[in-house]
Design goal:
heterodimer; A: Rieske Iron-sulfur Protein; four-stranded antiparallel beta sheet; 15% strand; B: two-stranded antiparallel sheet
């Protein structure tokens, strides 16, 4: 704002003069509501040519929308569904998706832009005030309703005939039980399902990538191998449920670096088998640090020390990773010496 | 009704020209539905204008877009977990085992022309729906629009936000891909942690052991029928109440508690709001063309023994993810049972975080004891305690969001994940307190500035040299409109405890809740919580004096 815009009387020395006369005026409320400001005309209100320009602009937007819809249909018909194009800067994308999305976007957006432009430039923008009315009912209305309610209640004899009232409450309270009972077959009872996995004594450890039984020499120090029990097949109908509990990770640590004696004993020659299912909320653990023997769950970052009984060293997991006791069988393959000694995966109430 | 229909030609003497067709249709409908009286009340209904009132519109429109695209998707999606082997056109997946749900989602993405676009619009609109609800809720919160008579509508809106979260979760779990399956597994683990009933609920929800073959069809009916049905009802109720209460408005000249100033529904808001639906839809369609979301073909089908790194839920679930990630792994084993506190506590805090903001309006109205209707909005600075609480709540939410993405923060900013986790653990308690204090101070500063502006005028930026050499800045007095706007707000006084002995010497019982209320009231409105606004006397004194600039 330039200095010309400041009225001269606002400048300090002038101000003093004008306001000295104000003091004699009665001190009214200086913050009184001046009421709605007068309507300011837009260009379109006073200049018909500007209004026509706006009209043409709105029409143009609607026309662009029509063209875009035609473009949408044309893209749908002409672009093959599997065509990939390079679009700078987003990269390789499906040509059909890109064309359909943009044409649809333009078609819709222009309708909206046209309507809004129309409303803002050509429709009346005079602000008007509407009265509000209290939400609460007038006292006489309230009195009438209460009297009606009382009469209705009396006519029903609800308060007087207690036997009806009590039995009705009883019946209404019981009847939803049928609905609850019907939910029983949603699933089986837990039983010991969460305590058992597909591992049992003598089952060989099958490499998940090669589907071959693992030998000790297949497992190198620093490697991470995933295994499943012998006899399990991907096409089994319960494969997902079983692998959700039985998934195994196998590492090899120099026996001298294993801190816990039981951990060493339950493995064979430094080969250790742990449940792959995180004891926090059940994500499969997959990040292994060779040097520290730590595994990290990528979901919630629980970190376990495999050289120390799968102990939790960081993160939200509540207990160590269960270790599977393994040995080398007569044929030279790794095999389980039984199921896990404790339930795998997340903790639960009955786990104990 | 009579006033609206008296001059319809149909009621006139016969022999005159027949009424136009549109009017005859309207007459027909009026005779059955009473549309004229409905239109009388609403056709020229006044809505105030402000950009922040569009946030609610974004919610409504994205909800409609979700329903439209969702219906389309159900035509092609197979909500089944039956195993199948993929033989479609997407080469990298040929021969892969997957569920029908996953295969049909791949099919929608690669075989159905435009299917990918509709899927992406559906998912983008869901993210925008939740974000818009969040912002809309904050607008309502910070302006005090939740006050009487709108408390019920606040709760409806809150329920929509919560249900929106769960509809989103059940929705993105449907493709049965590796990412969403991991999210479902997390949900199962969280359910298992619930004392006594956890294992039973899990078995009943999944129809047996996780993952089983039931959860996709079950989630499907929850996602497309149960939750949207409830939400649609709530949206309708929300809208009816908006119309019934009439919209709130910001303070300003000519705006009072007894009126609503703006422009009529027909034609201005029909064009503006109707047009805005197309703007939102168009923008989402364009985003869906440009930015791929949830590329399940790159993620792969779910296997409980596989996972990808950087697994994240959709953003609105992020704060619950933060809770579960930063909680220490407490686990107590007694009497043969396990208390999985490390999971149960986040599970309890999750609804608590949400409830904290939901119940605030009721706490405020109890503390103030204000029973009047409020239709004029507060400027956030004029309600420092509320604004500070809201800001603290947002900071709480965002600290947890940081916790939910701690791995991404670590990899993107080269930070230690342990340090971030610890920051969130401490920040969960500390950050909201700091934000509360800071925000309240900022509000007070802004109030002080308003007061200065009222009393001394606007700084014009013009330096004037007086004849004796002194330099002064010229202050321009505010207009009457501005003076009114800056001073029209109320400044509540804190409640006082009634004396324990009344004027007749009779002892009065002061309950604990009264004491608490007075204490809170002092905290809300007592000393040091607001800057007394400019009074008429101050204004007269300063404006009549000399050289106060």
């Amino acid at each position: 704002m330039s200095s010309q815009d400041i009225p001269e009387e606002n400048l300090p020395h002038v101000q003093g003069d004008t306001h000295s006369s104000d003091v004699t005026k009665p001190a009214g409320d200086p913050f009184a509501d001046p009421g709605l400001p007068p309507h300011e005309h837009r260009k379109q209100d006073i200049d018909e040519r500007a209004a026509s320009r706006s009209e043409r602009m709105v029409a143009l937007l609607f026309l662009v929308s029509m063209v875009a819809t035609v473009g949408f249909i044309a893209s749908y018909v002409s672009i093959p569904v599997d065509k990939i194009v390079y679009v700078f800067p987003i990269g390789h994308v499906s040509a059909l998706n890109f064309a359909l999305g943009l044409t649809l976007g333009v078609a819709l957006f222009c309708i909206g832009a046209g309507a809004v432009h129309w409303a803002r430039t050509l429709m009346s923008d005079v602000e008007v005030a509407d009265e509000r009315h209290p939400i609460e009912a007038a006292p006489e209305v309230k009195a009438k309703v209460l009297a009606d309610f009382k009469q209705g209640a009396e006519e029903s004899a609800f308060g007087r005939r207690k036997l009806i009232r009590n039995t009705m409450f009883g019946a209404l309270a019981l009847v939803p039980l049928s609905g609850v009972v019907l939910l029983r077959d949603l699933g089986p009872l837990p039983g010991t399902k969460l305590r058992k996995t597909a591992w049992s004594e003598g089952k060989m450890l099958i490499n998940q990538n090669t589907l071959q039984p693992l030998r000790p020499e297949d497992v190198q120090v620093g490697s991470l191998t995933f295994a499943m029990p012998e006899g399990m097949k991907e096409e089994d109908h319960d494969f997902q449920q079983e692998i959700a509990k039985a998934a195994l990770m196998i590492v090899r640590i120099q026996p001298a670096n294993i801190k816990d004696k039981k951990t060493l004993d339950w493995g064979t020659d430094g080969i250790l088998a742990y449940s792959k299912i995180c004891t926090h909320v059940g994500c499969p653990i997959s990040l292994y640090e060779q040097q520290t023997h730590h595994v990290l769950c990528p979901c919630h970052q629980s970190t376990f020390d495999l050289s120390d009984g799968g102990r939790v060293i960081f993160g939200p997991a509540g207990h160590a990773l269960p270790q599977l006791r393994i040995k080398v069988n007569d044929k030279g393959y790794l095999e389980a010496m039984g199921d896990f000694a404790e339930p795998v995966g997340p903790a639960f109430w009955e786990r104990g | 009704m009579s006033t609206a229909t008296t001059n319809t030609p149909g009621a006139d003497a016969p022999g005159r020209r027949k009424a136009p067709a549109g009017e005859r249709v309207a007459d027909w409908a009026d005779g059955r539905l009473g549309i004229y009286s409905l239109a009388k009340a609403n056709m020229r209904k006044i809505f105030p204008d402000h950009w922040s009132f569009m946030l609610g519109e974004v919610c409504l429109y994205s909800f409609l877009i979700i329903i439209l695209t969702g219906v389309y998707l159900t035509l092609f999606f197979h909500p089944s977990m039956a195993e199948t082997v993929y033989h479609g056109p997407y080469v990298p997946m040929q021969g892969m085992r997957m569920s029908e749900a996953f295969a049909s989602t791949v099919n929608i993405s690669f075989d159905v022309r435009g299917g990918l676009l509709v899927r992406q619009i559906h998912h983008w609109a869901a993210l925008i729906f939740l974000a818009a609800m969040f912002l809309h809720m904050m607008r309502v919160f910070f302006t005090g629009a939740f006050r009487k008579p709108r408390e019920v509508n606040w709760l409806f809106g809150f329920l929509l936000f919560v249900l929106g979260m769960f509809t989103g979760f059940t929705g993105y779990s449907l493709p049965d891909d590796l990412l969403s399956g991991t999210g479902v597994r997390f949900m199962e683990g969280a359910i298992l942690s619930v004392p006594i009933i956890g294992t039973y609920v899990s078995m009943f929800l999944f129809g047996g052991e996780f993952p089983g073959s039931d959860f996709v069809p079950r989630f499907f009916s929850i996602h497309v029928l149960l939750l949207p049905g409830i939400m649609l009802g709530l949206v309708v109720a929300h809208m009816i109440l908006v119309v019934y209460h009439k919209h709130t408005q910001y303070p300003g000249p000519g705006r009072t508690e007894k009126n609503v100033v703006g422009m009529p529904l027909m034609p201005v808001y029909m064009a503006k709001a109707g047009g805005f639906f197309f703007l939102v839809f168009g923008a989402i369609a364009a985003i869906s063309a440009i930015a791929t979301i949830n590329p399940i073909w790159a993620i792969g089908p779910y296997r409980p023994d596989q996972v990808s790194t950087g697994a994240q839920p959709d953003w609105y679930m992020g704060f619950s993810e933060g809770l579960i990630r930063v909680m220490p792994g407490w686990e107590i084993n007694v009497w043969g049972h396990t208390f999985v506190l490390g999971v149960v506590i986040p599970l309890i805090i999750f609804p608590t975080v949400l409830a904290a903001i939901a119940v605030y309006p009721f706490i405020e109205s109890w503390v103030t004891g204000d029973k009047r209707e409020h239709h004029l909005l507060d400027r956030p600075r004029n309600a420092p305690t509320r604004t500070a609480f809201g800001a603290a709540w947002i900071s709480w939410y965002f600290v947890l969001l940081v916790g939910g993405g701690n791995d991404l923060w670590a990899t993107h900013f080269h930070l230690s994940i342990n340090a971030i986790t610890w920051f969130v653990r401490v920040g969960f308690f500390v950050v909201p307190v700091l934000v509360f204090i800071t925000t309240r101070r900022i509000c007070m500063g802004l109030q002080r500035r308003d007061k200065d502006k009222v009393l001394h005028g606007r700084e014009s930026g013009i330096i004037k040299r007086l004849p004796h050499g002194e330099f002064v800045e010229v202050h321009e007095p505010l207009s009457q409109e501005q003076l009114h706007t800056l001073t029209s707000h109320e400044q509540p006084k804190p409640l006082e405890l009634v004396p324990e002995v009344d004027e007749n010497g009779v002892e009065r019982k002061v309950t604990g809740s009264q004491k608490l209320r007075v204490k809170l009231s002092k905290g809300f409105y007592g000393e040091g919580t607001q800057v007394p606004k400019a009074t008429a006397e101050e204004f007269h004194e300063i404006t009549s004096g000399h050289g106060h600039h």
